[in-house]
Design a protein that fits this description.
With 66 residues, the chain is mainly alpha-helical. 8% of the residues are buried.
Length: 66
């Protein structure tokens, strides 16, 4: 799932959080800290964190309005 296209739903949030957990575990098992794979995983984690921040911001704004 790509976070840039994922609608801001609770189901997507749960799936994205699970993905982050899985790829974080994978990254911790990598031995070479400078590997391209590790850098790709770090980039994906940043994307996920940005999506989660936006999700929380949208949900907070919706709660304030209604």
């Amino acid at each position: 799932m790509t976070t840039t296209a994922a609608p801001f739903t609770l189901a997507n949030k749960n799936a994205i959080m699970l993905e982050k957990s899985n790829i974080t575990s994978s990254m911790l098992r990598l031995e070479n800290n400078d590997s391209i794979v590790k850098k790709m995983i770090q980039t994906r984690i940043i994307e996920i964190d940005q999506w989660l921040q936006e999700f929380d911001k949208i949900k907070l704004n919706n709660n304030i309005r209604g």
